[in-house]
Amino acid sequence: MSVAARSELNISEVVPFLRVTDMPASIDFYVRGLDAHIAVRWEPQGELRWCRLELGGSALMLQTLGPELRQRASANQLGLGVSLEFQCADAVALYHDLRSRGVEASEPFVGNGLWNTSVADPDGYVLEFASPTDIPEETRLSDLA
Q: What is the mean pLDDT of residues 88-103?
């Protein structure tokens, strides 16, 4: 069996794993703000230190930064250059839902044939939400009002 064939058989999904500085703030953002749910959790000594979050058909893992990484990284550096793209049925509806929950989502715009809106989590990780559209490129939601 070739290496490529073995890899195809053994990989079932990729789940982004984000290190966070403040687990309660991150849980509030993802669970209250984005309506994700905690599917699996690790709570040594009763403190949530790691979890798998699920949102629709997608998943993320969060883990509190350990002391060794906390010394090397500031909250402003963690999310630098990282963005996660979530494909969804209706990014504009999701934008309105996020705003109603108090989440600062960007104004939807059309790029690459997709409505796009984004949010940043407490550590600066950018979450982008996109859905297909036939509206002209570079159209902003406010252009349709």
A: 96
DSSP state of 32: I
**DSSP secondary-structure letter at 31?**
I
Q: Are 16 and 58 a contacting pair, CB within 8 Å?
A: no
Check if the beta carbon of residue 52 is closer than 8 Å to that of residue 78: no
Bridge partner residues of 130 (DSSP): 87, 116
Tell whether 96 is covered by a domain: yes
Would you state the structure tokens that stand for residue 97, as one six-digit string? 């839902």
Retrieve residue 140's tokens: 């902003």
The structural domain count of the chain equals: 1
Asked whether the predicted pLDDT for residue 81 surpasses 90, the reply is: no
Distance, CA of 52 to CA of 66 (rounded, Å): 17
Task: Tokens for 110, please give them.
Answer: 């059309």
The CATH number that applies at residue 109 is 3.10.180.10
Residue 23, sorted as left (phi over 0), alpha (psi -120 to 50) or beta, turns out to be alpha
